[in-house]
Each structure stands twice: as structure tokens, then as C-alpha cells.
Write a structure and sequence with these properties.
elongated; about 190 residues; about 15% strand; Nuclear Transport Factor 2, Chain: A; 3-stranded antiparallel β-sheet; about 55% helix; 8 helices; 2 domains; 3 strands; alpha+beta
Length: about 190
Amino acid sequence: AADKIRLIPQDFFAELCEQIIQHLNHKIPGINTAELCQRIQTSGVDINNDDLAKIANTLSFLFSTAARNNVSTEELITTLGSGVSPLPKHAVQVIRHVWNEQGKAIAVSEDAGNMATVGQFVDMKWKLGVAMSSDTCRSLKYPYVTVTLTVADPSGQITDKSFEMTIPQFKNFFRQFKEMASVLETV
């Protein structure tokens, strides 16, 4: 990971660290590494989304472990500098600054540790479409609904999940949402 971190400019690395801290403090649902990766690539750095996601996971683990163990800034920096593959100087400076400013605020509670690791719903988009024809059928006129769910997985990575439903499937989906809403109103 240290080799890949060397590629990331300091300002982007700082933004990534800030987003991770915000995610750990439950201020944002996750880290959009795809969007950040695209911006880094636009600046001329050759890095892919998988590598950036691994770096984000590593930093998230680092910050959450440091918070759980109540590690001071100096202890954290000493540990980072003494590894087999030490982090680049700019990365250590960013981590020092972010940890000094916001690290102690990371909420470490027993409830957070006991929560199921399922992910968090961020957004939902849908659109109605009609399949007019295909290679095997000249006249379909088949309506469908495409749903895209934006979800932050437990590590904070934001991904989109898309699926299509027939109109009867969508009506069932909608009915279930109405049932959930009515149950939530009674709580």
C-alpha cells in the first residue's frame, strides 16, 4: 500500500483521510473512491479504483484501531515510520495533521462494534423503460423498471447496485415499501 500511496498527491491523500474520519464519525455514509479515483487520474496519476479502495480500507483500519486503543499522535506517527515499508513523508504529515485535528473525535462505542456488518443505504434512483424490440422479437412493447441502489459497504466504499423488474414485480416491491412505512409510523 505504501508504494501506491506514494503516487497520490498530498491534497488528494488529505481529502481521502478527511472522508475516512468523517465516515468513522458517522457524518457521511461512505467514501466514494470511484469519484476520487477519477479526479486523481484526471490530474495525471496512474492509479486504479481497486488500489485506492485498498488504501482507503487500510487507512480506515488504521484510524479505527488507533481510536479504539486511544493512541496518541506521536505513538501513531512513530509506528507508521518504523514499519518494513515506511509511508512517504507527505502521507505521514497528512495523517499527523488529520489525527491531531479530528482523530480523537472518532466515536468508538460498544454498539458500533456489535452492529451487523451489512452496509448502509445511501440513495435510490429508478426509471421506467419500454423494450420496443429485440433480435428475436420484432414487437415487444414490454415495460420495465430499472432501480439503482447506492450502498456504502461496512468499510465505507460506495457502490451502485442495479436491477430490473417487471411491472408486477415493481408493484410488489412498492407494496412492501408501503408496509415498511406503516410499521415505522407505529414505532
